[in-house]
Design goal:
globular, UDP-galactose 4-epimerase, domain 1, alpha/beta, binds serine, three-stranded mixed beta sheet, Rossmann fold, 43% helix, single chain, seven-stranded parallel beta sheet
Length: 313
């Protein structure tokens, strides 16, 4: 039988694409999107839901007969620094409500997105291993590390089947990220196509782990469909696609748009980026549940340019 799915934060960068993918996989009516805003396009059942309204959340889950929750609602790394306490409240208390509900209502499976923002200044910078020091400097990263530990706790103590990956920066053409440090890698395509010029808020040699949206969506659906006993890690799995610097992505885009120019004006996000890893070792995800990425910088750039050009035409 198909699961009945609730997606929180469904209007965000990942939610927008994930909801369509889940609707294709499980049927439109089996996937309810929710957020504190209306979706740009109504493509199926949607409800207004503030993740801090626990009672509403509970009512929706019961009334709709929800069996799985993809809990995407969160405030990202850069925006989070403008209001640390609110970010903690939304990111951490939002998750706790979901975990409690899952325990009480016997929700079959939960997906919790974690991030490369769990890494910090003492984390090995390259090929960061699955088990490494996690000492993030942003409140977003702190809320995600703590969230991972609580996921593990609810799994071990109450059997809540919560599954998680640490997303790298995600690049897609269907939606714009809001308030992340890796957002430049999406903005650069739009500016290249619209204006032939981009002012980058990170320094040119800042290498970060990244992933193309189709890979991120496949990873999400795959870990949620994996047999329970295959998943050995119940905090969160490292996940890798590619790694590049602003200069490298600029050069790749320039192959398609020879007049494209770039300038660099680093702001407070540079410090956040500098505290994260440059590349990730995701061997555990590959061997436990068969993860394999498909897109590298070249293949992604080609598709992004094709898709975004189409949007502006
Ligand atoms: N893309 C996110 C951010 O930049 C990282 O999880 O905040």
């Amino acid at each position: 039988m198909n699961p009945k799915i609730l997606v929180t934060g469904a209007n965000g960068q990942i939610g927008t694409t994930l909801v369509s993918a889940l609707r294709e996989e499980y049927g439109i009516d089996n996937v309810v999107s929710s957020d504190i805003t209306e979706p740009k396009e109504i493509t199926g059942p949607h409800c207004f839901l503030d993740i801090l309204n626990e009672q509403r959340l509970r009512e929706h889950v019961k009334d709709l007969g929800i069996t799985q929750i993809y809990h995407l609602a969160a405030i990202l790394s850069a925006n989070g620094e403008w209001n640390p306490l609110k970010t903690w409240n939304v990111n951490f208390n939002g998750l706790l409500s979901i975990l409690e509900l899952a325990k009480e209502e016997k929700i079959e499976r939960i997906f919790f997105p974690s991030t490369i923002a769990v890494h910090g200044l003492n984390t090995p910078k390259t090929q960061t291993p699955q088990h490494a020091a996690l000492d993030p400097t942003t409140v977003y990263g702190m809320s995600k590390v703590t969230g991972e530990l609580w996921c593990n706790y609810y799994f071990k103590r109450y059997g809540v089947d919560v599954r998680s990956v640490r997303y790298p920066g995600i690049i897609g053409y269907r939606s714009i990220p809001h308030g992340g440090t890796t957002d430049y890698a999406v903005e650069i395509f739009h500016e290249a196509i619209k204006n032939n010029n981009y002012e980058c808020f990170l320094e040119k040699d800042t290498r970060l782990p990244m992933m193309y949206m189709p890979d991120a969506i496949r990873a999400t659906v795959k870990i949620m469909q994996a047999p329970k006993n295959d998943l050995q890690i119940r905090t969160s799995y490292n996940l890798a696609g590619m790694s590049f610097t602003p200069k490298e992505i600029f050069e790749e885009i320039k192959k398609h748009l020879p007049n494209f120019t770039i300038s660099y004006k680093p702001d407070f996000r540079q410090e956040i980026a500098a505290s994260w890893s440059e590349s990730i070792d995701d061997q555990a995800a590959r061997s436990d549940w068969g993860w394999a990425h498909e897109y590298d910088l070249e293949k992604m750039t080609q598709d992004m340019i094709f898709q975004i050009k189409k949007q502006y035409e």
